[in-house]
Amino acid sequence: MGKGYTHLYTGNGKGKTSAALGLAFRAAGSGLRSIIIQFMKGLPSGEIDAAEKMGGLIAIERYGSTRFCRPDDGSMDEHREHARRGYGRAREVLTGGGYPVVILDEIITAAAFGLVSDEDIIALIRSKPEAVELVLTGRGAADGLIGHADLVTEMREIKHYYQKGVAPRKGIED
């Protein structure tokens, strides 16, 4: 594959995880293995089922609660523990090899909630082997993180049917 780069997909719009998954599926089409480590996600979703059909080329591991992260509901310790385990797994994967594509889905959002630090994420970027393509997703990327990425895309919401009360639909948002 040659030199790998660091991608950062951020912003308040829909499509950050979808863009990362698209990259993983494109890599699978070329025979490259990907791992997607999902932070702050614990509920069932369609991407898990799709990845299982890819013949082992895409692995998804989830490090999140089935509850939403709300700083005022007493669940922050649980969310911090999930994020700590996910971060540890990300370090293992980056140093252990075996995956030319590593996606850390919602790690930026985890940092925004104080579950991991920007410094932790920068340490992961710096530890990335040269041949690994690293993808980070989540809302609210700090300037320091943006400065360490090679490619930055901001998804910006202009209009969304969620504002009209449309619930997440199976196979589309879920």
What is the CATH C level class, in words?
Answer: Alpha Beta
The shape is globular
Helix-strand string:
EHEHEHEHHEHE
The average pLDDT is 89
Instruction: Give the assembly state of these chains.
Output: single chain
CATH superfamily: P-loop containing nucleotide triphosphate hydrolases
- What CATH architecture label applies? 3-Layer(aba) Sandwich
Flag low-confidence runs: none
Helix content: 25-40%
DSSP, total strands: 6
How many domains? The number is: 1
What does this structure look like?
The structure is a single chain. The protein has 174 residues and is α/β, with parallel strands linked by helices. The protein has one domain: Rossmann fold (3-Layer(aba) Sandwich). The protein has helices at residues 16-29, 46-52, 76-96, 107-112, 118-127, 143-148, and strands spanning 6-10, 34-39, 58-63, 101-105, 133-137, 151-154. The protein has a six-stranded parallel β-sheet, with helices on both faces. Helix 2 (46-52) links the parallel strand 2 (34-39) and strand 3. The longest helix has 21 residues, at 76-96.
Characteristics:
alpha/beta; globular; six-stranded parallel beta sheet; Rossmann fold; 6 strands; 6 helices; single chain; 37% helix; 18% strand; 174 residues
